[in-house]
Amino acid sequence: QVQLVESGGDSVQAGGSLKLSCTASDSISNYCGMAWYRQSPGKERELVSAIKISGDDTTVYPFSDAARFTISRDNAKNTLYLQITNLKTEDTAVYYCAATWSCSRAAKFDYMYWGQGTQVTISS
Q: Which of 14, 78, 88, 92 has its CA at a distance of 20 to 30 angstroms from the CA of residue 68?
């Protein structure tokens, strides 16, 4: 059973930065695609940033404010990261990590595995 565990969520003031982590129970090199989503209260879950993995190559697909959200991975730690800078109150949400080993699903940003989420709260 694949497990994805997010961490790094916190309550911080606007203008600050956070780095979220998503650690997988197996090697992330097995995955063709990984992504970060977020869901704010009363809103639908939205895709923040995604990567497609092919060996050592990574293609990034930014969906939200690419200047502030940076997705990256560390294969040795089986971990996906999301760096968020210049945090805004509208970034308040639960952030979820997702993954799929299926490249056909990765091409559609359709993920098989999900984490439980980590809460990010930004105050003004």
A: 78
Spatial contact of 35 and 59, defined as CB atoms under 8 Å apart? no
Mean pLDDT to the nearest integer, 59-77: 91
pLDDT at 123: 97
Going by pLDDT thresholds of 50, 70 and 90, the confidence category of residue 68 is very high
122 alpha carbon, distance to own chain's centre: 17
Buried b (16+ CB within 10 A) or exposed e, 68-99: ebebebeeeebbbbbebeebeeebbbbbbbbb
Q: How far apart are CA 76 and CA 21, in angstroms?
A: 14
Instruction: Please give the pLDDT value at position 56.
Output: 77
Computed from CA positions of residues 51, 13, 11, 77, in that sequence, does the dihedral angle turn out positive or negative? positive
Beta strands in the chain (DSSP E): 4-7, 11-13, 18-24, 33-39, 46-54, 57-62, 69-74, 79-84, 93-100, 113-114, 118-123
**Which residues on adjacent β-strands are paired with residue 93?**
120
Report, as an integer, the average pLDDT of 80-91: 97
